[in-house]
Automatic annotation (TrEMBL):
Annotated protein name in UniProt: peptidylprolyl isomerase
Protein location: Cytoplasm
Native source organism of the sequence: Ilyodon furcidens (goldbreast splitfin)
Alphabetically ordered keywords of this record: Cytoplasm, Isomerase, Phosphoprotein, Repeat, Rotamase, TPR repeat
Enzyme Commission designation: 5.2.1.8
Residues in coiled coil: none
The organism's place on the tree of life at top rank: Eukaryota
């Protein structure tokens, strides 16, 4: 242990044992899966991320060793730990430069967004030296001012290669691409069973996989376009789930991105029209539904049904507001009654 600690110090990593683990230290061959909770802090104690609270839920991090994870220092410190161990690692700046990008992806994942959203089509080092905002003030500051970080790690589980099913992100590019149709079908089956949240997760995983592959291609190239065409039906299914979950503004955002690229995508217009109607955007809803009928006149009856429902909701809302504010600004013109005071 002392020898390992000395090696870490030479590499610019200081380990502080909080609670010892159990059993023997694994030899951690490539392909080992490690499951752990982490808390990332600045040297002054300011917490940046905590896997126990990120996204409003407690979800541990999982890594497959040897897969060249962007933040390589995590692999370095994890292989010094026993299962069940809790330790703090203070890591020099040379190990933490990419943390803002990693954190952005992990934060996106925790709230169900694309892990690559907001990242430019370039390598991590190039992004570090750009002035592109990561969408979080603390991460933007850290990116502009690299500094040592403290990682508090609890190693929950160590799984040897072959003892578990690979997650999507741990697969090769070919394995990921080949798995997408199956995941798509699993999502469809869950949707038919009424398991909307579970279906959403399947669609999201497939989309994230394809987006990851797409990031490796040049926008507009044949392979990039093919991947984008695979993403489109998955994203439309994801939007249908969001409609049922009441996530209307997210649907508007996703469908707007689709019609920007594919101006005749009927389903995108239809779903966006429903989302606009749900949030009282009457003008936008009517425009989208008009486009649907233009693209497919056979859907006129369905569109008329949606418009009728929208009009009824608007009338009900108007009546409700009228009743709510009735008399609010009325002026009482009756004179106040005089008060008689008896002499003492």
């Amino acid at each position: 242990m002392e020898e390992e600690g000395r090696k870490l110090l030479e590499e610019g990593i200081r380990k502080k044992l909080i609670s010892p683990g159990r059993g023997e230290l694994s030899n951690f061959p490539d392909g080992t899966k490690v499951v752990f909770h982490y808390r990332t802090s600045l040297s002054d104690g300011t917490v940046l991320d905590d896997s126990r609270t990120m996204g409003g839920r407690s979800k541990p991090m999982e890594l497959i060793l040897g897969k060249k994870f962007k933040l390589s220092v995590w692999e370095r410190i994890l292989i010094t730990m026993k299962q069940g161990e809790v330790a703090e690692f203070t890591c020099d700046t040379k190990h933490t430069a990419l943390y803002p990008l990693v954190s952005q992806s992990l934060r996106n994942i925790s709230i169900g967004k694309d892990p690559l959203e907001g990242q430019r089509h370039c390598c991590g080092i190039a992004q570090i030296h750009s002035h592109h905002s990561l969408g979080h003030k603390d991460l933007d500051h850290l990116q502009a001012n690299p500094q040592p970080l403290v990682f508090a790690i609890e190693l929950l589980e160590v799984l040897t290669p072959g003892s578990f099913q690979l997650d999507m992100w741990a697969m090769t590019d070919k394995e990921q691409l080949d798995s997408v149709p199956q995941i798509h079908e699993e999502g469809n089956a869950l949707f038919k069973e009424g398991k909307i949240k579970e279906a959403m997760e399947k669609y999201y995983n497939a989309i994230a996989c394809l987006k990851n592959l797409q990031m490796k291609e040049h926008p507009g190239d044949e392979t990039w376009i093919h991947l984008d065409q695979m993403i489109t039906p998955l994203l439309l299914n994801y939007c249908q789930c969001q409609l049922l979950q009441g996530q209307y503004y997210e649907v508007i955002e996703h469908c707007s991105s689709l019609v920007f690229k594919y101006e005749n995508n009927l389903k995108a217009y239809y779903k966006r029209g429903k989302a606009h109607a749900a949030v009282w955007n009457e003008k936008e809803a009517r425009a989208d539904f008009a486009k649907v009928v233009e693209l497919d006149p056979s859907l006129e009856a369905s569109v008329n049904k949606e418009l009728k429902a929208l009009e009824e909701r608007l009338r009900s809302k108007k009546q409700e507001e009228k009743g709510r504010y009735k008399g609010l600004f009325d002026i009482n013109t009756r004179p106040a009654a005089a008060t008689t005071v008896s002499p003492v």
